[in-house]
Every structure is written in C-alpha cells, then in structure tokens.
Amino acid sequence: MLAAVIISIVLFILLSTGCLFLTVIGLPGNWIMILLAGILQYLDRWLVPEQDGPTFGLWVFVCCILLAILGELLEYLASVLGVKKFGGTRRGMIGSILGGIAGALFGVMIPFPIIGSIIGAIIGTFLGAWIGEAGGSLAPCKDSLVPATGATIGKVLGILSKFPLALIIWFIFNVTLLLR
Fold first, then answer.
1. How far apart are CA 146 and CA 131, in angstroms?
2. What percent of the chain stands above pLDDT 90?
3. What is the rounded distance in angstroms from the CA atom of residue 100 to the CA atom of residue 111?
4. How confident is the model at residue 137 (pLDDT cuts 50, 70, 90)?
5. How far apart (Å, rounded) are the C-alpha atoms in residues 47 and 37?
6. Is 142 buried (19+), middle (13-18) or exposed (0-12) by CB count in 10 A?
7. Fewer CB within 10 Å: N-end or C-end of the chain?
8. CA torsion, points 97, 76, 23, 41, in degrees to nearest 10?
C-alpha cells in the first residue's frame, strides 16, 4: 500500500508539472491539473483507506478553480484588448485564437517542443489575426499588420499573466499532497 501511495504522489507531481507546460502553450493545463487532483482524491479512497479526511479538501479545490477561472479571464482579456487596442475586429480576434492554437500544435514539431510550441503559438496568433483581419483578400494586408501585432502582444501578455496562476495552483496541490 505504501508503494502505491508513493507512486501516486510522484506521478501526480510529474503530471501536474507537465500541466504547467500545457498552460504555457495555450492548452488547458490548469483545468487538467484540477481534474488530475480530483482523480487522485477519488482513488485515494482505495490507496489509503485509513486516511482520515480527503486528500485535498473542498477549500483547496475552490481556491484552485477560482485561480484557474481568473487565469482564463486574464488570458482572454489580454488577447481581446490587444486586438481592440490596435484597431482589430471580431474576425481578427477569432483568427488570433485559432491561429494561436494551431501554432502551438505545429510548434511541437520544432526540435525543442516546449519552446517550439510557445514560438508557434505566438507566430500562429499573429498569422491568424492577420488573415482574419485581411478577410482572405490581399489588398488590406498592410492594414492587418497593426491589429495582428496587437493580438501577438495580447497573447504574450495573456501567457505571462496566466502562468503565475498556474504555478500557484501547482504549488497548492503539491504542497497539500506532500503534507497529508
């Protein structure tokens, strides 16, 4: 039983650390981390039946969920404000979101997957906003560069604002797990 507990702790720490990298590339790492914590709490009923009380507790989950929601809001607002501040439209915003996701996924193919994903997400955000603003025609391409730049700045600021919250969520879960 002790071996199973140690394995579950090490596995959770490794997987939750991986979730930090998912957050950096624009994927829902915070939410996957919360899901993993919920799964571990559920499995702990069988791994540690003599444990009195839950692994994490309600307030740990509430705090982490609120932090994850705040991270999503900050990332969304940074992207939207980046496009809007530089004169972009709704099409540019949608293009920047889709381009950022596609860029992060294609960036995995760069020899350094994490750095490649970040670079891909930033380039994809720019290209997505640029194409979205241009609307498929080549005539206004020059005018689309400014909103695309705003989308890229917003994406970077969004990642920079969401990642510290991901670190806090990671810290809360892992410290709580190690102190149980």
1. 12
2. 33
3. 19
4. low
5. 14
6. exposed
7. N
8. -120
